[in-house]
Amino acid sequence: MRGQEWGGHNELSGVVHGPSVQAAVVHGDVHIRTGETAEQQLPWQLPPAVRLTDRTAEVERLEHHRALAAQRDHPALATVSGLGGVGKTALALAWLHRLRPDFPGGQLYADLCAQAPTGPVDPAHVLGSFLRGLGVPPQQVPDGVADRAALYRSLTVDRRIVVLLDDAATAAQVRPLLPGGSNVTLVTSRRRMSGLALEGGYQVHLEPLAPEAAVELLAATLSDDRVATQPDDARALVGLCAGLPLAVRVAGARLAARPQRRITTMVRALTAERGRLDALAIDGDHGVRAALDLSYQGLPGEAARLYRLLGVHPGMEFGGGVAGAVLGAGGGHAGGGAGVAGGFAARGDSGACEGSGSDEDPGPAELLDVLHDANLLIDIGEDRYRFHDLVRLHAMGKAAEDESAAERAAVFRRIADHYLATATRAERAIDPRHPLRERSYGPGPVITEDFGDGTRAALDWLERELPNLMAVIRRAAATRERDISWQLADALGPFFLRRKHYDAWHTSHAEGLAAARELGDGPAECRMLTSGGQGELGRGDTARALEMFEEAARLFAAAGDELGYARTSNYRGLAHQRAGQLDEAAELFEWAAVELPRCGDLRAGGLARLNAADAEFARGRLPRAAEGAAEARTTLLAADDSYNAARAATLLGRICLGDGRPDEAERWLSGALAVLREVAAHYETARALDALGEVAELRGQRELAQGHYREALDLYVGVNRPGPADVVRERLRRLDEGGAADSGAHG
Hints:
Blueprint: E1 16-17, E2 30-31, H1 38-41, H2 56-71, E3 76-81, H3 88-98, E4 106-111, H4 123-133, H5 145-156, E5 161-166, H6 171-174, E6 184-189, E7 202-205, H7 211-222, H8 226-229, H9 231-240, H10 245-256, H11 263-280, H12 286-297, H13 301-310, E8 317-319, H14 320-327, E9 344-347, H15 364-373, E10 378-379, E11 384-386, H16 389-402, H17 405-430, E12 446-449, H18 455-479, H19 482-491, H20 493-499, H21 502-519, H22 522-538, H23 542-559, H24 562-578, H25 582-598, H26 602-618, H27 622-638, H28 642-658, H29 662-678, H30 682-698, H31 702-718, H32 722-746
Parallel strand pairs: 1-2, 3-6, 3-7, 4-5, 5-6
Antiparallel strand pairs: 8-11, 9-12, 10-11
């Protein structure tokens, strides 16, 4: 039986499927059904399709390649290459969305970020995301690219799925991400992916739009008669845009906002801008860059400021609250009242940060609309936005040109504070018992996003924002804003305990630990060691976990923190127990069970007592185990911890069973089972059922025993507990053979 960690956290060490309903510490695997259909649980990750102009030939070529591959029962792999802004992703989405009826197994999507300032995405990270999207519980995602890729191929070999790998850097980055089976994978890249030829990659190189098609796109963007009445100017304009759809849309959006302006005015301006770029010998897509420069110059002052300041944001997408943060909307500092408007709240003396404002003072929501209408932002739904990669680089460049280094640093701090304040609010919602250290923020204002109420809303916000939170931690480490690194990692602790993102857990706490050490902040270092050690224990690195717990214990001892030291004793006991060192574990649990109540934490003492009883049971010392389990149950019930009290009751039932008292065992186990079913703690439920099956066997109730064992087996398999599952399979085999023998004798 797993040990239980100290009671300062509301912890869960299993898999959560669906919303979490938890009163206390859960060390088991929790599945809560919410009526979702299988269709809803499949991954449908492709972004929405956008308007596609004159790409019929390319779509037909891709479809012909897919049809040939299907005839041969081969996977279909294709690459679409071309200049930035030429419409590679638009083509990919338009084609792949059409395939959904023929590929009901789902759609996987990853932005491989070849153009990101921080460099391309690691394939291991993408594989982890894909595996979770395919239903693999986070704690069952293997370490390392090779093992993840093998599991990914196994899970997709019999599915009918499509995969879009957007903005790839190299063929080597792509290869581990190719699914198994006869599925469809499309890769987009600035460069031709000839390295995928051995994998059967079919290459489509996307050229800029022909003049007629580009004019058609311009007309659709303007939605008036200017293209029809000024055809020569329209052709000149799209020529200056080099036929790149992104440039045509950006230039068209600026004209659309000025219905009285003639196209020739834009032609003159764009001609001058192209000449400036050529004179500066700037590499890249001058048509897009010139259009972006003109669009930026035409923005209202506050919209232009928001555009360039959003270039400081370290992540790939963002919510509306980030706009308020970068602008410093609200004027207050964390710690004051909270107001909610326009999807976010400004915390401070000034009250609510308006999501919209007057014509003279537009709010962040209005300014985001201005950028979206100018085709500078992509609206991806639910108050979420992202830049096209070229636009993002342009915004970063404008921030570097038009803002001082000090202002850019202040903007990043406001962004980081926005995420830290909201993550801290989520931390409180997930686990009110989690000991919360006061946060330190910059000069403010600190904008806190409104993600809704309750544990599920908090978990979902953190899940959605995790890439941004990790990007902030990495940026903070690079800019040496160390307090951000450890505080944000600390706020993520309760989330990691539930959602088991072990890679992010490991990385964030490694950065946080380095930050705390550099700051010389001993309490912060201890928090990083204990929380990070739990992550290492979960990912199977017991030696590293024990090393971290022991280091925390030394720091607590040196600081004279008796409660902290006692809690680490319980952690160290768990690590020894996981390593099979029962004597060492029992000694640590026993010591913690005495010291924690003395230090004022009665519930943690009850959990330590339960761990100690479990260790005694494993060593065959039944009387001492029974005494300890009963004491733990009484303490936990007094602390209103019914879940862990039920775990203690399960242990009492198993002790009675081992002592030859099946009737008493059944009473304990049945009572525990009712509580465990109620909270859908599948691992602990399986253990109770397993023991009840043994009770039924002792009484000769073969069919009842089989029923208990079969249900326990399903639960063990569902939560990936192969050892107990094998034991139950053997018991079922023995019962089945016994039943067949009895039938033969009677025949």
